[in-house]
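Entry 14. Ran structure prediction on the chain below.
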Amino acid sequence: MGYANVDEKYTKAGPTYLEQTTAIGLYPQGASPYEVQDMAGNLWEWCLNEYDDPDRTKTGGQRLRALRGGSWYYYPEDARVFVRLRNLPDYCDDLVGFRLCCSSPISR
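Output, structure tokens:
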């Protein structure tokens, strides 16, 4: 398997196309230097910032929001940090989701 849950077969980037979301941790070879896994592929992740004004991060409203990371249905080249989609905040389907984040009170 590759480094993320994406459609590798369509563009012949690899042999895998699972056609669904997967559990976090299935692609350990794609972990970031900070050991965060599955930041690319699986689901397009909602971002807090607005698409047209990335510095604006207020919640609420109906302005277009950014989605990043690619998904299982998209190609490997869409799972890059500079690729982003946009949609209204109330949009939902099986290709989008969000990541819960929190800081740890434990220092390393």
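The chain has one domain: 1-99. Will compare against last week's run tomorrow.
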